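USER:
Try writing one entry.

ASSISTANT:
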Amino acid sequence: MKILILNNDFRVYWKGRLIFLREYLAAYNISLHAVELFGNGSPYAFDTYNNKEDWWTCLFPTKSADDLTAKEIAKKLFSVADQLNADIIIGPSIVFYAGALGLRWAKINRRKFIMFDDGKTSQIKRNPAVQFIKNLLIGQSDAIWLPSPDYDKEYTASHRKNALLFYGFNTIDNRLFKFEDKKTFGHNTIVCVARLVPVKNFDNLLKAWQLVEQAGTNYKLLIIGDGPLQGHLNDLKDKLQLKAITFLGVMDNISIPPWFFKSDAFILASVWESWGLVVNEAMAAGLPVLLSKKINSGESLLKDGVNGFGFDPLDINDMAGAILKYIDLTVTEKEIMSQTSLELIDEMSYENMGLQLLKAIQKLNNSKTKSPGIIASLLINRWSGRYNTFAWDNEQKTK
């Protein structure tokens, strides 16, 4: 059996997943092939396209979506898909080029289509007509691959009845963040890893940290990352007269784990996150987590009061209260939270991701391929997707 997985680009976290899945599925005589559309234009541009695998290709390695027409993208993608002639196509949400065109090729060639997505309809502003069309197109998927069962409620009863829902693609290589030595506490340090952009809600985090400093805790806040708000946040730090915040700048993944080890907790204050894989990283390093209640991974990975605390990202007092509540815990209580983080994140491993996908493939292999109706067929043939990542860094999500 041959599987083709598509994406607008496979950057950062996807690299490890693909390499693992290629080897994992091969043990079951399933050949995985990967095609990404664009080499440029990714919001993760720092992670350049440089893979050399013969089973993984980029259609336009030197171009972005803005350099091409939908027809050009579709023509090249369909040519490669025709050559591979896979039995099952896996692609992202149908709002993106790779998802929309992957679905179209699958329907034309009567192949199964699996859509993966970590966005939630309840967090995305759309008019009812657009949402109806999106729901209709999603309904043509044979299966939907979600991060966790918490996403089920975001899909209509029709989707849940007619498509196979399975889970676990939002994983990292947990082993990269685990330590041989036991996690220690008493560093009086909380760490945040995030781009310095509006959606990460740093203004409120700094204002909440002012309350933490005023409480006399002697804790430090370390911020790893860079972005367009760096100058503004430095000015705000001075304005609030904050003494215990350090901006460490951007780091690669190899450099981040030691900072996790030297910290007592991780915090992320975003006003939305489709998932937030940095939470996986922090928990794999054994850190208790302090999370905005608008971060989707928190619904699965944060057990309030058990491995951390949640807070309203727009309420500075609530955020400061969660931080202070954690700081006031005993070392023993923090160690228990640390162990719970490790146990919870172990359930979101590469191995579980592979097993979930394998089971879905086996079920789909024994089921009939969906045939779209007249209206759905017209929409599939007209909609080619897009590559709008501008809103990813802003405070409100549209897609």
